[in-house]
Amino acid sequence: MVFTGGPDIDPPFMHCDPIPELGITNRNRDVFEIALVRVAVAKHIPILGICRSALVINVALGGTVYQDLKSQFPQKPFKHHQLAPGNQPTHFVSVKLDSHLFKAVGDDVFVNSRHHQAIKDVPPKLRVVACASDGVIEAVESNDASVQAVQWHLVIELLV
């Protein structure tokens, strides 16, 4: 099952209040996709999450999200919401050698970056498998590889 990009995650799903920097949300889509992720995981249906959906998967399984990197990330992150065309990579991501993602893409991946939200706390069912040089989590996966989620738009990169 493939989940795609889209608007910001609605903060009540992470048990927190919205901040002024929060972008547009779609509560109905959040409700639907969070429920769908939970059903897919329970039924062992493989999942690939892209961009926003990496956040949805993380939240659905009990994790949290930075509503806005610039205002909430502990260190000063570089600009993750690039103005470059979607098919143009803008920064490197380091992938952990012991991950399933590494088997697919290698250790350093040059990716596009079009997000201002990012994974904050990762739930026990997932593990961090890739980060940007500023420490922002860029990919998570389940131990059995049935759940893969990346913050970048790999579909755009594959189509070019």
TrEMBL record:
Keyword field contains Kinase: no
Gene3D superfamilies: 3.40.50.880
Pfam families: Peptidase_C26
Keyword line: Plasmid
A Gene Ontology term for the protein's cellular component: cytosol
GO process annotations (BP): polyamine catabolic process
One GO MF term: gamma-glutamyl-gamma-aminobutyrate hydrolase activity
Name of the molecule in the record: Uncharacterized protein
Organism: Secundilactobacillus paracollinoides
